[in-house]
Amino acid sequence: MRILFTPVAATATPLFHLVPLAWAFRAAGHEVRVAVLPDLAQAVTATGLPVAEVGRDYKIMDGVIASRGGHRVIEAPASEWTRSGLASADGAASAPPPADQAGLADLRNAAMAPLVEGAARMTPDLLRFAERWRPDLVVTDSMVFAAPIVAARLGIPLVRHTWGPDVMRMISQPLQGFSDAGDVRGQWPVGLPELYDHHGVEVRNDHPLRTVDPWPTSLQLPGMAGRLPVRFVPYNGAAAVPDWALDRPGRPRVCVTWGTSTAALAGDEAFVLPRVVDALAGMDVEVVLAISAADRVKLGSLPDNARVAENVPLHLFMPSCSAIVNQGGTSSLLTAACFGVPQVMMPQTADNPFNAANYNASGAGITLDPTRATNDEIGAAVARVLTDEACRAAAEKVREEIAGTPPPSAVVDSLQALARA
To answer: InterPro entries annotated for this entry (predicted)?
Structure first.
């Protein structure tokens, strides 16, 4: 069989979520191609997967940054998300509350505009490639709006691959997976219905037949259409393993990381890592700063208990960590969860507040408002996740749940049957 993967070309992180399943297909003897805008092609080849470049050289993140005012519509302290009923205090997932329709439309149109533009640029080349290569199955990120067009035009089964709480249902679009309700065209981002019309593809919400989902079942929002749970397998890029990553230090090791998307969207004025480093400087812990070169420059001099792991993938040293401070991005969050590491989350942008509020409901972490948290509060939160037995037990429970979820190889078997049906 031939399997076509289409990750969103914003940052490498959504690609990394797809890599374990793509390699599972290859290990099972299938052909795999990854089709992306040229901006992400180098990141794909670094994973060892073959790439097909489609579309002109459009950088989705440039468009996202330009329209980040729209993204800030969903930014709020995680406590607000919890109070809104998006994640309950007892760990049970719950559906989003009714949203203000005008505000929801503004969010949808501002946040989705770069993705609609990316779809318009990708579709002609993606369609030509698929016509020639003839995949048996298309596996796509939830935000690649070109994939349903190609799948529908060529009669190929379409599967979406999500990577967190199903927040996309709040901004209805063609990879939602649900049956149509109400004015579907009016629910879609501006310009997207016209793109589908141009290619002769029906404007409807249920193009995907299944949804591959690595988010813990106990925390996922209910009612996800065609859900196929899959074990999250940490992949944060390739690198040499540093010697210290295998050490078990004599004092707790605390990872501090910040996502590339957060840095780009929030801007320097919202950079909170100096406060985090200061908060941990006086604690009896070893701080590992898993950051980019650009963020390292912003930090200046560091305390004696800190080391820098510049561009070192988290999964290479997370087993040796006792806690993590992160931005609530799904990759950082799930990587730590795989190893039962309790978390302090300080979300700022995009879906991170929602991720943090949802995961916080497990009891395996603490969420702080990054705009208000003082050094003392940050230090107290880290001390709590290091010592609180209930928090650590909850983190172990999530780890066990992830470990007990079917691996990518099992999902390959299910998707093979779907493609051959």
So the answer is: EryCIII-like_C, EryCIII-like_N, Glycosyltransferase_28, UDP_glucos_trans
Instruction: Report the alpha-carbon distance of residue 140 to residue 45 in Å, rounded.
Output: 18
Residue 215 sits in the same domain as residue 256: no
Domain identity same for 343 and 396: yes
Residue 260, domain extent: 243-403
Residue 290 bridge partners (DSSP)? 257
pTM: 0.88
Joined together, the tokens standing for residue 343 give: 């978390």
Own/partner long-range contacts of 370-377 (Cβ < 8 Å, ≥24 apart): 370/270, 370/272, 370/346, 371/77, 371/270, 372/77, 373/272, 373/275, 373/346, 375/275, 375/278, 375/279, 376/279
Count of domains forming the chain:
2
In a domain, 238, yes or no: no
Residues 272 and 289 in one domain: yes
Distance (Å) of CA 264 to CA 39, 87, 268, 295: 16, 27, 8, 11
How far is 26 from 143, CA to CA, in rounded Å? 24
